[in-house]
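[Automated response] Your request has been received and processed.

Submitted sequence:
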Amino acid sequence: MGETVDSGRARGALRSAARVGLDGLLVLGFAAAVLWLLGWMWSVIWPVVIALLITTLTWPVVRFLRSRGWSGAVAASVVTVLFLLVAAGTVTLIVVPVASQSGELVDGVVDGIQQVRQWASGPPLNIRDDQVTTALDAAVAKLQGSVGSIVNATVTGVGTVASGLVTAVLAVFLMFYFLKDGPRFLPWLSAQLPGRLATDVPVVAGRCWDTLGAFVRSQAFVGLLDAVFIGIGLWIMGVPLVLPLAVLTFVAAFVPIVGALFAGFVAVLIALVSNGPTDALIVLGIIIAVQQLEGNVFQPMLQSKGLGLHAAVVLLAVTLGGSLAGVVGSLLAVPVVAILAVIARHIRDRLTIQTPAATEE
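Generated structure:
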């Protein structure tokens, strides 16, 4: 006996699939509109994001001072000044030792270039001096032909630096106001919203704040691990400027991928010009080992535990964010996914229907 397909069920399945597809297209269109709006307002949103990240890092100190009877304005002022002093001290720890040993580093770079040139002139490359001179002349000619592009890039870079300074100043002021008036925000928001939103939105906002704080704390801890292990490795190898390099590694950890590459490149370059190629290769191996351990073990474990996300989701979020928006996308991918997960869980809890059996249990 043959089997036939029920045409009514088939039409129903097709209609259901069409409705799901249409709903999906509407959701994607709404998401695209939101992303376009965020991009249009990015010059305002970016300082707010930076201020929120810094606020989550400094809020425990403000909370401690307020619990001891300090007013919100005084506690926020003191913590803001302390943050600026710590930031200035961090820059000083990096810049001053490097500046004091800049002469030795320049001489080391020159010696390193001469060593590479002597090595290249021997087997197996056998590059002659006239070939090197020809290559340098060609590079100079290309550089001269690209003067216009270099000038444009320089002007763009100056504009970017100026925009970055404005963003940093605005973020510091916003951080102060967030620290000062933060506890008043949720009650104010609840009073402005009607009906169920007056309860749901503040609850979701509080959970998102806790999630953002967990992200910043885990990122800081991961950066501390990188700085300690890489600093110990540099100290064992006798590389100069260990403290500035460790501080640079900690700061760079807050910028995923690019920050780690930059800090590692600086450490390997200093090891090369001061200790030679062998130690530089060893330092490179230490940095790769630590960063692989951090990126594949510590960071996913800490963030998955603190943010309620699986380690694989963390890795995929960083990869997707970097491919969509570069460094900024890598930095914000994990907290954005964690916040979306918080919102989704709250919506799911609200939509869940408690059965009588479940209620009795």
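Summary generated for your ticket: The mean pLDDT is 75. The radius of gyration is 27 Å.
If you did not submit this request, please reply to this message.
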